[in-house]
Amino acid sequence: MSSITLSTVLRRRSDVRYRRIEGEAVVLRQSAAEVLVLNEVGASVLDLADGERSVRQWIEELTHEYDADADTLARDVLTFAGELHDAGMLEEVSGEAKP
Amino acid sequence: MSLARVVATTWRENLLFAVLVELTYRCNLDCFFCYNDLALRGEPLSREQYFRLFDDLRDMEVLNLTLSGGEPLAHPDFLALGARARELGFAVRIKSNGHALRGELARRVRDEVDPFMIEVSLHGATAATHDRQTRVPGSFTRLLANLAELRELGLRVKINSTLTAWNEGELAGMFALADSLGLQLQVDPEVTPRDDGGREPLQVAASREGVRRLFELQFERARTAEANQPPEVARGGDDGTMPTPLHKHCGAGSSGIAIDPYGNVYPCVQWRRPVGNLHQQSVRDIWRGSAGLAEVRDLTVEVKDMIAAQGKGSHLLNFCPGSAAAQTGSPLRVYPVAAQRKELMEEVMAEEAKRPLLPVIG
What we know:
The complex is a heterodimer of chains A (about 100) and B (about 350).
Chain A: E1 9-12, E2 16-21, E3 24-29, E4 34-38, H1 40-48, E5 50-54, H2 55-65, H3 70-86, E6 90-92
Antiparallel strand pairs in A: 1-5, 1-6, 2-3, 3-4
Helix pairs in contact in A: 2-3
Chain B: H1 3-13, E1 18-22, H2 47-59, E2 64-68, H3 78-87, E3 91-96, H4 103-113, E4 117-121, H5 127-134, H6 139-152, E5 157-162, H7 171-181, E6 184-188, H8 208-224, E7 256-259, E8 264-266, E9 276-277, H9 283-289, H10 291-309, H11 321-328, H12 336-354
Parallel strand pairs in B: 1-2, 1-7, 2-3, 3-4, 4-5, 5-6
Antiparallel strand pairs in B: 7-8, 8-9
């Protein structure tokens, strides 16, 4: 079960390699030799997971990018972040997000 | 979207996704059947040119970058180039003979390049055969020691082998050796001509019986494997792993390219038809504007139609337009090795079909 909250700061794990193809992300997790394909929101989450911004800041950025209901987007992003964390693609960074 | 559909998208939309870079033709072994054109001359790409190339490939969303040769580790800038590739987020593969991959260098490759995979070459199950092919005494013993070391370092390693007249009698031993090392072994049944068209390597092409034995062994191993997966009988795109209908036979020039040490760009490592040179143009410009690449993309559509016209079981040809061009002068002509492969695979599959199904126990 994921413990990700809006204030969590996440970054991509060092063994994650990914590229965007037609908006979606092809992700290779090297240590597990796993390949996943993420939709556009998932690809954006990977882009945003720089270890500096909180999940709340991702949602603010994505709200500008996508014409979607803010609550729905927040729920989707939080769920996605948790799933990517549980799948070993993202890891928590201790400390506060940069403003 | 599944990975297969992404790959299909790259083929259809001509999105570069995988690049093989031959960094150098220098090598510390001297394999009899090496396909490199060692007489090819030109201005080698500089470190800065490679860095620019990698930057461009990153911007073009290329994921898979293979560093090959010759022996890529013989390039004086190998570690710097590998580290740069890692920094830019490529999934890096290294195709090496494994001879130098030990000690400090192996550790530095792990720590600085962090490759997804290292593919090394095995030429036999005994020192006599392996060393005969590499023409370097002691290379077999050293390779086995290096493979054990690479495993201890936590590097992901795969073994590649080419079936030849010299090692076909050791096939079972080669699989057993790979199993004992806990490594996957992939055997290519085809010795190819040299990249300059020279046919000397074909002197050691495997016999019909040797190729058949390989296919039998692959089925035997698949039958006894836990997953009970059928052996791979055809390249991606023809065997149901790709969504249909795909209008191209393969991704040569559509999702992949190969680059030689002098900056010549080819649609594929097998298809040595130059489509541009990095001393004259950037990879972006070649990808967008090369008339040669446009022709190759059209040819892969024609190849698809040609293969379909061969009728039932045509996917078992495992047809490679690059090999066809090298062996017959046309990428559209079925070459003898492909025809033989289909025939043998059909024979072996017919034998397999007669085999009774075993009850599941436990």
